[in-house]
Write a structure and sequence with these properties.
Blueprint (H helix, E strand, L loop, with lengths): L1 H25 L4 H18 L1 H15 L5 H23 L6 H4 L2 E4 L1 H9 L4 E5 L5 H10 L4 E4 L12 H16 L16 H10 L3 E5 L13 E5 L2 E5 L2 H9 L3 E8 L6 E5 L9 H18 L21 H5 L8 H5 L17
Parallel strand pairs: 1-8, 2-4, 2-7, 3-4
Antiparallel strand pairs: 5-6, 7-8
Helix pairs in contact: 2-4, 3-4
């Protein structure tokens, strides 16, 4: 027990040191060297965090079932740890109007975003907790597309974080991202009913509003959720992106940020507008299918493979269990409770966009 506690403290200290000291240094090195060293750190975490490694591989096979062999799940798990370390370097390259990171990100589908904004009704970019998308939103903004994100900063509500920890994550993670956004995040806290109004105002100002649609609904929102097919399972998700597009007339596009095999280059893949004229559940099902396809194409890019306590309304349940992708009895939070390990060495992938 003492060894386990000591290891958690060591990992916490390493995570703080990596974000506060190492990642800023890596971000100023030549990109090839900086991201290679970030991958070395990811490999080290993969080797030393046996419990997380085993659980992530297990969750991959539980959700994707026969799509991954044991060896393939192991490779995806190693990749997940590498991408987590690389995301910190992405955030630290968001300086000087994000120029160091913009040089490494290609925007495919820029013409779709430009055409959508040419209508004067703004644009909705629908995505998921996938890849380094928060840094990617900042890159889009710095590239001339005014971006406002709908999403919570979890250090503002994560159970168990001290005020010092909240201050730290706000400083090292949220502050660099906020520099390259048109407006502050529109945060859908429980009991707040002005999210749609604020999003509509951003669209009327001809901005790009981003929405990640893969989060489990909070208890207060369950009545508005619709059932869709997601990763081979029937789940309930909030169709807010489609409803907003239907009400405002803003074009809705799908966008995913993929990291290249060299780890330093990334590609935004932005689609043409998705039809939303039909029934809400049908149109939203098409969006959920696009997210599922992106996750199947690059499963290591998805954040939710490891348990993370869902902040409001889902109790002690990880995102996978709250979505219905794994049985609650096989979820670490519901089976053992959300202990200290839920907070150890918080990586970029812990952050809720």
């Amino acid at each position: 027990m003492g060894d386990s506690r000591a290891k958690r403290l060591l990992l916490n200290a390493e995570g703080v040191a990596y974000w506060a000291v190492a990642a800023p240094v890596l971000a100023r090195l030549p990109a090839a060297l900086g991201y290679r060293m970030a991958c070395w750190r990811g490999d080290w975490l993969f080797r030393c965090q046996a419990e997380k490694r085993t659980e992530l591989a297990r969750n991959l096979r539980l959700v994707l079932e026969n799509e991954l062999s044991a060896e393939a799940a192991r490779q995806v798990t190693r990749e997940w740890f590498r991408l987590s370390s690389c995301e910190a370097v992405d955030v630290k390259r968001l300086r000087h109007r994000a120029r160091p990171l913009r040089r490494l990100v290609e925007i495919r589908g820029r013409e779709h975003l430009e055409a959508a904004l040419a209508t004067g009704k703004g644009a909705i970019l629908c995505t998921a907790h996938f890849g380094s998308c928060s840094s990617g939103f900042s890159v889009l903004h710095a590239s001339g597309f005014p971006v406002t994100a709908i999403g919570r900063w979890p250090h503002n509500y994560m159970v168990g974080l001290s005020s010092a920890e909240r201050w730290f994550w706000d400083r090292v993670y949220a502050r660099p991202l906020r520099r390259d956004r048109q407006r502050p995040n529109i945060e859908p806290w429980p009991g707040r009913f002005d999210v749609a109004v604020r999003a509509a105002a951003a669209l009327r100002a001809n901005e790009v509003v981003t929405i990640s649609i893969d989060s489990p609904p909070m208890d207060s929102d369950r009545a508005r959720a619709v059932e869709v097919r997601f990763l081979g399972h029937q789940v309930r998700l909030l169709p807010g992106a489609v409803v907003l597009a239907q009400v405002t007339g803003a074009p809705l596009l799908m966008g995913f940020l993929y990291r290249s095999p060299d780890y330093r280059h990334q590609v935004w893949e932005i689609s043409a507008p998705v039809p939303v004229e039909e029934e809400t559940a049908t149109a939203f099902g098409r969006c959920a299918a696009e997210v599922s396809a992106a996750i199947r194409r690059s499963p290591a890019h998805w954040d939710f493979w490891l348990p993370r306590k869902h902040g409001h309304g889902a109790g002690s349940m990880s995102s996978l269990a709250a979505l219905g992708l794994i049985p609650p009895e096989q979820d670490r939070f519901t089976s053992r409770g959300a202990g200290p390990s839920a907070r150890q060495a918080i990586p970029a992938r812990w952050i809720d966009r």
